[in-house]
Write a structure and sequence with these properties.
Shape: globular
Helix content: 40-55%
Radius of gyration: 16 Å
Number of domains: 2
CATH superfamily of the largest domain: Response regulator
Number of strands: 3
CATH topology of the largest domain: Rossmann fold
CATH architecture of the largest domain: 3-Layer(aba) Sandwich
Strand order of the largest sheet: 1-2-3
Oligomer: single chain
Length: 143
């Protein structure tokens, strides 16, 4: 599977590979590189667009620092959606999960990354590059 994303952060690319992707490109990938990615992945290889490869390399060379590195792919997605202002009910509908499952993930995420409250949770998501400051919603008491 080749992941095509608007997210250029290394955390998204790494989570995509953890979830089984064989390649990751962004919307800023050059058309010729996109074609190369499709051919490479279709042939059984792996592909990482140049901008993401640089970002992942820089991230790895800097050493472990992201509090979200220990989250699973589903937890990372739920954290991103929560930090973007979606309610647990809306996330449950979007991901075809029960509301209780989303709330359980919410609690587990806070525990795993050491968030004191929901505003801290959003701040950690922004710090990890999961959401931009412009997209973050710190008024998450509605979750």
């Amino acid at each position: 599977m080749l992941a095509f994303s608007m997210h250029a952060g290394p955390a998204f690319a790494l989570k995509a590979f953890e979830a089984g992707a064989s390649g990751y490109v962004t919307k800023s990938t050059k058309p010729e590189d996109l074609l190369s990615a499709v051919r490479t992945v279709a042939g059984g290889g792996r592909f990482l667009s140049e901008d993401i490869a640089r970002a992942v390399a820089a991230d790895r060379l800097a050493g472990p620092r992201s509090v979200v590195e220990h989250l699973g792919a589903r937890e990372t997605e739920i954290l991103r959606l929560l930090a973007s202002g979606m309610t647990s009910n809306a996330i449950a509908d979007l991901l075809n999960l029960s509301q209780k499952t989303v709330r359980n993930h919410h609690y587990a995420i806070k525990s795993k990354i050491g968030a004191n409250n929901d505003a801290h949770l959003v701040w950690l998501a922004v710090s990890a590059g999961l959401v931009s400051m412009a997209d973050a919603r710190f008024d998450v008491d509605h979750v």
